[in-house]
Amino acid sequence: MNQTITLHVNGSAKTVTTDSERLLLDILREELQLTGTKYGCGEGLCGACTVLIEGKNVRSCRAKAVDVDGKAITTIEGLAHGENLHPVQEAFLAEGAMQCGYCTPGMILTTIALLNEHPQPTDEQLLRFMNGNLCRCNGYPKVLNAIHRAAGRLEKIK
Ligand code: FES
Ligand code: FES
Questions:
Q1: Of 124, 131, 113, 127, whose CA–CA distance to 73 is shortest?
Q2: What is the CATH number of the domain that holds 8?
Q3: Taking the model in full, what pTM does it have?
């Protein structure tokens, strides 16, 4: 059954008519052309499709679009302001925390959700929060350094 919903994506209201079973990931990529949100496993296991909904990290491959009707959604495209990157993007860039980059949007958005919840996370909080975000290039040490940098903790992890 089709439903008309309004998604507040990166500060803009987007009205779409969609099948009630359709996934948020499909709407973002195919209807709104926000292809920075990646399709990885499609099963909620890799974190590549992570977006923020009301500031919390959500796997868009498991969320039905109709369930986030009216909610504020942030994708990777919504973070920079013109030439000015978001501090977490800057931290990832400064630490070289990306190789192929496929996991990077999800990593960055999950980091923002982590820092929303724990502005100065302990290593345990950090590892528990980021645990479900996979990087097939095995770039974890630099990702962790970027998160520490973003949190204002510049000490490098081993
Ligand atoms: S594509 Fe959504 S968690 Fe892997
Ligand atoms: S940088 Fe390639 S998957 Fe993480």
A1: 113
A2: 3.10.20.30
A3: 0.95
